[in-house]
User: Fold this.
Amino acid sequence: MTEKEFKEAVLPHHSMMLAEAMRLLKNRDEALDCLQDAVTSLWKSRIELAKVSNLKAYCIRTVSNRALEMIRQRHVSYSEYGKDLQSDVKSDSAIERSENAAILKKAIKLLPENERKVVLMKAINGMSSDDIADAIGLTSNNVRVLLYRGRKRIKDYLKKNMDYDGKGFK
Assistant:
């Protein structure tokens, strides 16, 4: 794919890609960085783009994946930064909350990749099933099934590893 063909194929989706990055990251500068990274990634894989049947969905999925990666990196950076600033003494409830958060993170990490993406896009970004479906190239029904399965696996994991009865913590 030549540079001209790439521009003609990808640039029409530029505004939708930026909107997706803005919706996920909620920061224009980060969204622009995300968009630039996504376009660079698309350029690097331009030979395979000719084989893509729905280029619009593929472009949006690429920017969504990059935005989610940036969000994950942001959370890791904040949590590492926060550890440096914390005092040595924590209350029991703070310790319990951090342990619960670690268990929940592990439960999410253990999900199959598609379920994890769908759960994170719904829980963290508040995306609708239709928006998630467009972003990752699935049907809305598939997204709902993945969301149901992911939530069920998380609940089952929490029941096994915490004082969780399926409705809340005891």
